[in-house]
């Protein structure tokens, strides 16, 4: 257990070193946040929707603030796989899936918290109808924090499966381009899932991508009522478990077939 | 049974060839990376493993370290089958892949070591003692706070070696550890390996292309070519087979000194210096020296075997590698 904790801490520290990247990320996400909010304001000015505008702007800002949680592959891990340095990690008395999983969690968590803090402050300071509103209730906020943590565990499990595929293809770019598109659309980053037609939402909210940020955001804005919270979290837990188990099996299979090329 | 026991080891790789013109599918070709390789190693041995590029050296190391599953044959290390009892097995081994890195790029190397301490569950007391022992022997003291990216190649290799030995492995695999190092670093590294082998009783298996590594370190050497074991024994025995030419250089007091030698032996004269090439099998060295001395007053005399790299090249040629 200690080894995994240690790897987690190490990766967290490493992420804290890249402060320049944080600044760049924050500026980029602020830009996207403002543009998206402006677009939804224009949409509402033309044709108001059922969903209050302040909920939509909150949704947009929370998505942008935690963007790093969704789209960021650990370049070190990809490099290890490509160059074969993974051979060293195969020589450790550890579960390799777990060893990489904690690193992914550490990277996504640290990276997104570093970016989220200044962005959330900025979004709170914006006027109503532009910025981020306070949570619907204190209980809802608490549920959304739990949901965010589960979302993190779930997205890390997804990412580790992608890593598993990278072990086979050696280069992740093509696959990632495709998966990122799915992720951006189905996680609600491009268009809030709350704006999809109801019949679509019934399906989309059950998919793993909706478990990442959509669920915690809906708990925050009050779109999910408190009575719905346990069920929402249960779906998150089920998906996380399923993805972790599938990832573990996939990695075990990979390890049996893996060939480290070259001398 | 021996500490490392390998019998009839087989490994095949399937390689997909370039699609032929007009063919629908690519053809597959099977390459036998290892065939019928057998050997055993006792605890505490220092074994050199040589062979041209692509001979199967690294493949053997990967199988022995448990990261590659062979297609046939038996392997046990300390009674365990590496790829079946991976976790227990890797706890006992240390590995240095000369071309790759196990330390974190942007982090001081000390922090990478601390992580390894937790990975191998090394007792904190023992860790401190071992780390100070290794940093002293490898002269890493000042570098512990330096991130890996700032180290030179030689420093990096020393740092990697330290990382691989922290948990006091019984068995150490070194895959081309001196690649790209300068003379001083090479000597220091060899000295360190000898020290580690003597003090800890660590069994060391070393693959290399640098014959000086083998000469300096390995009483026993194994030659691999085209996936087969071609030689296993002492280095002098191996070289003796190919050691066909030696050179004597003499510096006489007199300018006209001429040793009594058959016409077939080439002699090059430069003033008072003579260079004579001879085959020790036809002309024993003692006999050669006696004749050289009989011809005049010798001021200086050296006998040189052929350059070891040439010997190995001749050996590979003869073995058709």
Summarize the entry for a quick read.
The complex is a heterodimer of chains A (263) and B (321). Chain A has 263 residues and is an all-alpha fold.
Task: Describe the fold and architecture.
The complex is a heterodimer of chains A (263) and B (321). Chain A starts with a helix and ends in a 6-residue tail after the last helix. Helices cover 74% and strands 0% of the residues of chain A. The longest helix of chain A is centred in the middle third of the chain and has 32 residues, at 138-169. The model of chain A has no long low-confidence stretch (mean pLDDT 91). Chain A is built from twelve helices and no strands. With 263 residues, chain A is an all-alpha fold. Chain A has one domain (2-257). The relative contact order of chain A is 0.14. Chain B contains ten helices and 13 strands. The model of chain B has no long low-confidence stretch (mean pLDDT 88). Chain B is 33% helix and 28% strand. Chain B has 321 residues and is α/β, with parallel strands linked by helices. In chain B, the strands form three sheets. Chain B has a six-stranded mixed beta sheet with strand order 5-6-7-3-8-9, with helices on both faces. A four-stranded antiparallel beta sheet of chain B has the order 11-12-10-13, with helices on one face. A three-stranded antiparallel beta sheet of chain B has the order 2-1-4, covered by helices on one side. At the A-B interface, helix 1 and helix 6 of A face helix 1, helix 2, strand 5 and helix 3 of B.
């Amino acid at each position: 257990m200690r080894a995994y904790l240690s790897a987690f801490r190490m990766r967290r520290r490493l992420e804290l070193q890249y402060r320049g990247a944080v600044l760049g990320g924050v500026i980029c996400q602020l830009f996207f946040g403002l543009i998206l909010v402006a677009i939804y304001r224009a949409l509402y000015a033309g044709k108001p929707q059922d969903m209050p505008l302040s909920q939509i702007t909150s949704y947009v800002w929370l998505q942008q603030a935690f963007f790093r949680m969704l789209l960021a592959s650990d370049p070190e891990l990809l490099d290890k796989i490509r160059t074969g340095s993974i051979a060293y990690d195969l020589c450790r008395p550890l579960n390799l899936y777990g060893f990489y999983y904690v690193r992914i969690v550490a990277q996504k968590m640290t990276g997104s918290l570093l970016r989220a803090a200044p962005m959330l402050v900025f979004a709170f300071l914006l006027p109503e109808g532009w910025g981020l509103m306070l949570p619907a209730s204190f209980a809802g906020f608490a549920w959304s924090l739990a949901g965010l943590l589960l979302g993190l565990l779930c997205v890390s499990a997804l990412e580790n499966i992608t890593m598993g595929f990278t072990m086979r293809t050696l280069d992740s770019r093509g696959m990632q381009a495709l998966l990122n598109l799915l992720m951006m659309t189905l996680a609600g980053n491009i268009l809030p899932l709350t704006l999809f037609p109801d019949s679509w939402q019934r399906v989309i909210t059950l998919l793993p991508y909706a478990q990442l940020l959509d669920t915690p955001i809906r708990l925050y804005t009050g779109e999910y009522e408190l009575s719905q919270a346990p069920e929402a979290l249960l779906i998150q837990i089920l998906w996380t478990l399923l993805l972790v188990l599938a990832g573990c099996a996939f990695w075990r299979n990979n390890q049996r077939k893996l060939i480290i090329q070259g001398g | 049974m021996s500490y490392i026991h390998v019998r009839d080891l087989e490994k095949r790789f399937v390689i997909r060839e370039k699609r032929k013109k007009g063919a629908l599918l690519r053809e597959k070709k099977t390459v036998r990376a290892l065939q019928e390789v057998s050997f055993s190693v006792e605890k505490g041995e220092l074994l050199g493993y040589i062979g041209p590029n692509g001979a199967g050296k690294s493949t053997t190391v990967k199988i022995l370290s448990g990261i590659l599953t062979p297609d046939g044959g038996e392997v046990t290390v300390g009674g365990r089958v590496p790829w079946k009892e991976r976790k227990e097995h890797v706890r006992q081994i240390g590995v240095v892949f000369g071309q790759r890195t196990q330390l974190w790029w942007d982090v001081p190397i000390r922090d990478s070591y601390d992580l390894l301490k937790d990975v191998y569950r090394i007792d904190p007391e023992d860790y401190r003692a071992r780390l100070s022992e290794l940093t002293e022997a490898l002269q890493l003291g000042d570098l512990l706070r330096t991130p890996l990216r700032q180290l030179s190649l030689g420093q990096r290799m020393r740092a990697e070696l330290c990382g691989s030995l922290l948990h006091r492995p019984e068995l150490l695999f070194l895959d081309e550890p001196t690649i790209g190092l300068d003379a001083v670093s090479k000597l220091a590294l060899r000295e360190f390996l000898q020290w580690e082998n003597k003090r800890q009783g660590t069994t060391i298996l070393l693959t290399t292309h640098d014959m000086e590594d083998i000469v300096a370190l390995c009483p026993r050497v194994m030659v691999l070519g085209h996936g087969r074991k071609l030689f296993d024994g002492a280095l002098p025995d191996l070289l003796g087979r190919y050691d066909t030419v030696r050179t004597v250089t003499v510096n006489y007091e007199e300018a006209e000194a001429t040793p009594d030698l058959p016409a077939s032996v080439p002699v090059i004269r430069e003033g008072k210096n003579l260079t004579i090439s001879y085959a020790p099998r036809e002309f024993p060295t003692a006999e050669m020296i006696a004749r050289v001395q009989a011809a005049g007053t010798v001021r200086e005399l050296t006998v040189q075997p052929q350059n070891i790299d040439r010997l190995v090249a001749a050996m590979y040629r003869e073995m058709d590698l």
